[in-house]
Structure of 2-C-methyl-D-erythritol 4-phosphate cytidylyltransferase:
Amino acid sequence: MNEKKEKYTAVVLAAGKGTRMGGSVAKQFLEIGGKPVVVYALEVFEHSPEIDQIILVTGADKIEYCQKEIIEKYGIKKTVSVCAGGRERYESVWKALQTLKSLESEQEQKNDYVLIHDGARPFLNQEMLERLCACVKEEKACVLGMPVKDTIKLTDENGKIRESPRRDLVWQAQTPQAFAAELLFPAFEKLMQHSTEGITDDAMVVEQEMGIASVMVKGGYENIKITTPEDLLIAESFLAEK
Ligand SMILES: Nc1ccn([C@@H]2O[C@H](COP(=O)(O)OP(=O)(O)OP(=O)(O)O)[C@@H](O)[C@H]2O)c(=O)n1
Ligand SMILES: C[C@](O)(CO)[C@H](O)COP(=O)(O)O
């Protein structure tokens, strides 16, 4: 007898303003290798056998653009919603989770796992995604990342070094970050009940609100986030190699 497949939703975040990049077009919509940055990750989720559906989060004024110029144009058929995000990244995640709750009522089916990905990370690939999906089934909270290559210094506010942590224990966190839905929903519900500062990823929310530590899963050094202008040069050089 076939076992019922567990349900995976990918949330792709594309509601940021790209302040550090500058320019008039938000970085997730800039073209690299002839396609907008956000399309690369959407295509990976579209072609993954694990992922059942995709929610794309963008600015309220970009919903129509995303529907026509991203989802329809590039054939991202697993997209079940293009919804408006919030001011901060975690608020965009919260909006996506609310959308997902409404969809669950309509679909009369709950999700087992939710993956949250920065639309500004175009070099996710199927191998990274497979490792993450396999891990989250076991561990319930998993973060893609890579060990750091430089020596890390922790300083005080004046830049004075306070600690040099063991490098073999220090990782750069990437996305996607994947969670059992039963952990992620209550974590964000709790988070939104108090004033919140300094939240820069989803694993922090699950740790802070639920007391659950996520497990690091090997991503790739190429899984960069396009953040500042030099990242576009790095991205072009990765694409030239393909
Ligand atoms: N309110 C926000 C802020 C960020 N993001 C998304 O989260 C990802 C990672 O965020 P970051 O690199 O910080 O993007 P921006 O917030 O756009 O950049 P900046 O901080 O330079 O303005 C990006 O794909 C971005 O579009 C989002 O959906 N909603
Ligand atoms: C989630 C993230 O991409 C993991 O590295 C990162 O923390 C986002 O941070 P940012 O301040 O939004 O760039």
